[in-house]
Amino acid sequence: SRTIRLAVVPGDGIGQEVVAEGLKVLGAVLPADVKLETTEYDLGARRYHRTGETLPDNVLAELKAFDAILLGAIGDPSVPSGVLERGLLLKLRFAFDHHINLRPGRLFPGVESPLAGQPEIDFVVVREGTEGPYVGNGGSLRTGTPHEVATEVSLNTAYGIERVVRDAYRRAQARPRKKLTLVHKNNVLVHAGHLWSRIFAEVGQEFPEVTTDYLHVDAATIFFVTQPERFDVIVTDNLFGDILTDLAAAVTGGIGLAASGNINPSGEFPSMFEPVHGSAPDIAGQGKADPTATVLSVAMLLEHLGYAAEAAKVEAAVAADLAERTGAARSTSQVGDALAGRVSG
Ligand code: IPM
Ligand code: MN
């Protein structure tokens, strides 16, 4: 019999509530001969207020031994902006070399799009996860004076770009439409932009069947709204990918449905799966959060660990649930129960 060793980081706000439902569905979908061993880690705002720690070294070392990590959400208004984001979430992504930040944008049948008509949206954003302006390469000078200066330097390495671009080509190659769009801003960010464009063209030589396209990020935001059906696979840098995937969520039924995987394809470190949404302190503890994004992240986790049939079952359960939603509000656990019921039926 097989065992999945899963580290669970519910985190802050609605993170707790949605992760409980994700685990409910995971438990329900796994075959009887697969054992699920979960270990919960208390990280986030409470831990920070209690001990001053965000991600202690011993916890980071322990986390390495798991098959995967399921994360809820990080961030709380009682903690200064950036402390938990950098000290916990980004620290995990960087320490475990999660260079593929995979974010599907899919409009499920029956989900109302805010866009005119009901466009067919089914793309995936391959967001670079370990470089760009997220590396924290910056500083402040003359702090507190009228001449204060702040810099954030975007780091782009040929190695880092090549691996994410090649991953995106492979994904495009495996999909029916075989189309890959590079999104950057190479008319202004010429140094990084030209490196991305050059490597995109070079790696493309290995994938003659993949149709390629390039868009500046500002133009891409227009097409996300006016022509989302033109996208299949998108590859982009860390910050552009962050912004575009919130927009992707907005046009595919909202942030309550948007799933993500922070993937280390080599398996050297555990990959981490989390809803794209944040901790939503305004609705935390009220049972109002939609756990669907977490449940879809669990499907990505299953797929990553080689349980493709179970991943498909979870996606089918979500699709069926979405198709039958009437608009009557259900609680977080009611949605989780309904999805767990569907996957075990
Ligand atoms: C996300 C979030 C994070 C990011 C923040 C919380 C650091 O917005 O997962 O999209 O910017 O990547
Ligand atoms: Mn974001």
From TrEMBL:
Q: Which UniProt keywords apply?
A: Amino-acid biosynthesis, Branched-chain amino acid biosynthesis, Cytoplasm, Leucine biosynthesis, Magnesium, Manganese, Metal-binding, NAD, Oxidoreductase
Q: In which pathway does it act?
A: Amino-acid biosynthesis; L-leucine biosynthesis; L-leucine from 3-methyl-2-oxobutanoate: step 3/4
Site Important for catalysis: give positions: 134, 185
Q: Which reaction does it catalyse?
A: (2R,3S)-3-isopropylmalate + NAD(+) = 4-methyl-2-oxopentanoate + CO2 + NADH
UniProt-listed InterPro entries: ICDH/IPMDH (IPR050501), IsoCit/isopropylmalate_DH_CS (IPR019818), IsoPropMal-DH-like_dom (IPR024084), LeuB_actb (IPR023698)
Q: Might you give the EC number(s) for this enzyme?
A: 1.1.1.85
Which residues make up the binding site for NAD(+)?
278-290
Originating species: Kitasatospora cathayae
Q: Where in the cell is it found?
A: Cytoplasm
Which family would the database say this protein is a member of?
Belongs to the isocitrate and isopropylmalate dehydrogenases family. LeuB type 2 subfamily.
Name of the protein this chain belongs to: 3-isopropylmalate dehydrogenase
Q: Which Pfam families match?
A: Iso_dh
